[in-house]
Design goal:
Elements (H helix, E strand, L loop, with lengths): L14 H10 L24 E6 L2 H12 L4 H15 L9 E8 L4 E7 L21 H5 L10 H11 L5 H4 L1 H9 L1 E2 L2 H14 L3 H7 L11 E2 L2 H13 L1 H5 L2 H12 L6 H5 L4 E3 L2 E5 L2 E5 L6 H12 L9 H22 L10 H4 L2 H9 L25 E6 L5 E7 L57 E4 L3 E5 L6 H14 L4 H6 L3 E2 L7 E3 L6 H9 L4 E2 L19 E6 L4 E6 L7 E6 L8
Parallel strand pairs: 14-15
Antiparallel strand pairs: 1-9, 1-18, 2-3, 2-10, 3-6, 4-5, 7-8, 8-11, 9-10, 11-12, 12-16, 13-14, 16-17
Helix pairs in contact: 2-3, 3-5, 3-7, 7-10, 14-15, 14-17, 14-18, 15-20
This protein binds 6-diazenyl-5-OXO-L-norleucine.
């Protein structure tokens, strides 16, 4: 057997979860591939095993399990995504959407599966006006008007049909089992529920799921979702029609109508995922493959990296480096505000915005000795956000890979479960510019390009990304609203500076989004000296607990970055799971060598 070297970078699996794994997933002890599975070619051209990094150990295990059963990274992506949908309703789910960036090792092709929610036919800015003509933030964030038509179930069907090796029933099996039998509530889940319960408990369908024990979920409770298990089963059995037509679709339409919203059966039956060309660029010898519109992330990443390219960032002092990175962030986010939206509805000047010449022009406006004030100050600080949304990264032993970020938007999405479905609906409509120039929950604004229209996808910041150089391949992404983009940028810069996967996941974070004209940062992002130097350059630095900007300090820590690194030079495969999230896990399993190929 070929010598396989793997490096394990994982958080410790809490004993409780391990116990549950053994109860609900007895087959996971199996470590042999079925005889029919092709033997992976172990060489410098293929990774030494399979790796999954996700925000929950049960989801990581589900991905590894289906690969043990002969599935590829794409089957594993379905399994991991579906289990996250069950165990992290706080973050994502069948009632939400996501982006799947896939690399098919056989064809060498990268494809971006856009499973973003779409606006229903009833969508209009007018739906979000209050009686006095102002903006109705409650309607934008809570209940039926905040929800777009879900995309995640359609992604499962499309990926299984087009890229997977296993039937959907097999890749969805772990999610169905966990929905049926339950999983232990963890601290972030219980805390998140408390902060959203006033909204969630407005809706009888939501109460039936979350108050099934007669009280709010508490850490350690077993959380079961039998209706969701049934919905998953219908999806596994009937594919697209199991969710978007028939019983589940009828219940979704009725559940929205019962709370005063308006979805039509055609909104669901007409939903389609879209395959898009990823954004590509070269940066310091890396091929960066990342998210195109309707994500704003890839264009912003291209702009920021190309602005920064000439500088040797690791060689600079902290304050000088941070200043340049922040100035690149400020410029990319300004363009996001005005130009970006769903490319099926608006002409996004993608070629211009991602060109080197344009980046050079932006670079020329950066003064290394002084912060550029953002022209218009909104005066609104970036609101505090807990971590919703979720990202996972997968590499399989054949060299396939998946970077997937999926979401229901804010904590527990709209809070609305359509009765009888177990499906918690997203509140992605708030990612539209529901009123021109009015900041959304992440403090980002937009205008016409991102105005709501029937069938249109709201602009996203989700940025699943691949980095490929001659000797290293990295898969990464994170939740965090508008900060996703800057966290992915810092992750790329970390890999470029030679960090390993776990160090990239742990990197301290800072962020600038043009408006408000403030650097927000985690508490340990800057030394006091660096913060003072940045202020001397003219930056407003908003550190937790401080009110330097006259605003609120940013939340203590952000993000939940999950990454896998395959080092082709030394033949290692490793994962990094954000240490800020104690239930996440990055795990590597050696490929099983079943003998010489015939
Ligand atoms: O698509 C987007 O950009 C947002 N709906 C993502 C939301 C998110 O990351 C929430 N996490 N803090």
């Amino acid at each position: 057997m070929a010598m396989i070297r793997t490096r394990f970078a994982s958080n410790l699996l809490p004993g409780l979860l391990l116990g549950l794994l053994l109860v609900v997933a007895p087959s996971c002890a199996r470590d042999v591939r079925p005889a029919s599975t092709p033997t992976p070619q172990l060489s410098a051209q293929t990774p030494p095993g399979n790796a999954v990094a996700s925000a929950h150990a049960l989801a990581t295990e589900a991905g590894l399990q289906v690969m043990r059963e002969g599935g590829n990274a794409f089957d594993a992506a379905i399994a991991t995504s579906a289990v996250l949908s069950v165990v992290e309703p706080i973050s994502s789910g069948l009632g939400g959407g996501g982006f799947f960036l896939l690399h098919d090792a056989r064809t060498g092709r990268d494809v971006f599966i856009d499973a973003r929610e779409t606006a229903p036919a009833s969508a209009s800015s007018d739906n979000y006006l209050s009686a006095d003509g102002g903006f109705d933030r409650d309607r934008a964030e809570n209940g039926p008007w905040s929800a777009g038509i879900p995309g995640l179930p359609a992604a499962f069907v499309h990926i299984a049909d087009t890229y997977g090796q296993l039937p959907l029933a097999q890749s969805l099996a772990p999610a169905i089992r966990i929905a049926e039998h339950g999983f232990p509530v963890y601290a972030r889940f219980a805390r998140g529920y408390q902060s959203r319960r006033a909204v969630m408990e407005r809706y009888p369908g939501t109460r039936a799921v979350f108050l099934a024990n007669g009280r709010a979920p508490e850490e350690g409770d077993l959380f079961r979702q039998p209706d969701l298990a049934r919905t998953l089963r219908l999806l596994a059995e009937h594919g697209f029609d199991g969710f978007y037509r028939g019983d589940v679709a009828d219940r979704l339409v009725a559940g929205v109508a019962a709370e005063g919203g308006r979805w039509q059966p055609e909104d669901l039956a007409g939903y389609r995922v879209v395959e898009r060309e990823p954004i590509r660029l070269r940066y310091h010898g890396w091929d960066v493959v990342t998210a195109p519109p309707p994500s704003s992330g890839g264009i912003a990443i291209a702009q920021m990296l190309q602005i920064l390219e000439p500088w040797d960032l690791p060689a600079l002092e902290d304050a000088a480096r941070t200043h340049l990175v922040v100035e690149s962030m400020r410029r990319a986010f300004r363009d996001r505000t005005f130009y970006l939206g769903d490319p099926d509805f608006v002409q996004v000047p993608q070629r211009l915005l991602t060109s080197r010449d344009y980046a050079a022009g932006l670079r020329a406006t950066i003064n290394p000795a002084k912060a550029t004030p953002s022209d218009l100050l909104s005066g609104d600080p970036t609101p505090l956000e807990d971590e919703e949304t979720t990202h996972f990264s997968i590499v399989d032993a054949a060299g396939n890979r998946a970077a997937v970020t999926q979401t229901v938007n804010l904590l527990f999405g709209s809070g609305l479960v359509a009765p009888g479905t177990g499906v918690l609906l997203n509140n992605e409509m708030d990612d539209f510019a529901l009123q021109p120039g009015v900041p959304n929950a992440f403090g980002v604004m937009g205008f016409d390009a991102n105005a709501p229209r029937p069938g249109k996808r709201p602009l996203s910041s989700m940025t699943p990304t691949f980095l490929v150089s001659d000797d290293r391949v990295a898969v990464l992404g994170t939740p965090g609203g508008s900060r996703i983009i800057t966290m992915v940028l810092l992750g790329i810069l970390g890999y470029d500076a030679g960090l390993d996967a776990q160090a990239v996941a742990a990197l301290p974070r800072y962020h600038h989004q043009w408006m408000p004209d403030t650097i927000s940062a985690e508490s340990d992002a800057f030394s006091p000296q660096t913060a003072a130097q940045l202020r001397a350059l003219g930056h407003v630095v908003d550190l937790p607990g401080e009110t330097a900007a006259g605003g609120r300090g940013s939340s203590h820590v952000w993000g939940n970055l999950q990454t896998v690194l395959w080092n082709r030079a030394d033949g290692t495969l490793s994962g990094g799971s954000d240490p800020r999230n104690p239930v996440g896990e990055a795990k590597v399993e050696p490929a099983v060598d079943t003998g010489p190929a015939p």
